[in-house]
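Handout, page 2. Input:
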Amino acid sequence: MRRTELTFQATESKGRVSGILLRPDDAFCLYLFAHGAGAGMEHSFMDAAAVGLAERGVATLRYNFPYKEAGRGGPNPAKVLVATVRSAVAEAGRRADGLPMFAGGKSMGGRMTSTAASEGELPGVRGIAFYGFPLHAPGRDSAERGAHLADVGLPMLFLQGTRDKLANLDLLRPLLEEVEPTPKLHVVEGADHGFHVLKRSGRTELEVMDELADTLSTWAHGLL
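Output:
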């Protein structure tokens, strides 16, 4: 398995950001993996997810958004985040070395990826996978943040926990039923937005991470 640290130009005004390419020897695809609002690309969840995917033949390219690269707390405006996604897609295309590409990410990173796709083609990207799509703020149930999904036009995979306070499944399910092609929704029983499970569930977080990696790699295989 090869780990390559890199940088690329995010936007003209925000400069360069860092990335980590993790590529197993038996890679069959590359997943462009954006981080969530509160943690950067080297967060323990991002690292564990990338390693789990690599063990299943999925290379990953993680990257920072400009605000994280600069060590700031709050996310950049959506326009900057979307532009960074597009730059990351271009960088992934240069680094893929012929591997089929998928994109997405954790929470906000996934939503910014689908937003970018809804506004125009992401060259080379065959599908989008979300680790916990943030449909609404906690306690403010609404499907408004998912309205753009109807304009994505790519296969999509949603990995969602039943205890996720940022995605009421009773709102997400009917929303996805109106999207073409029909997205795949994989529900993780007892998991919250960070895919943590309660001890009384009888499951370990490692088992949950294995389930997520198995599901994403199987979904990607099925699209090739």
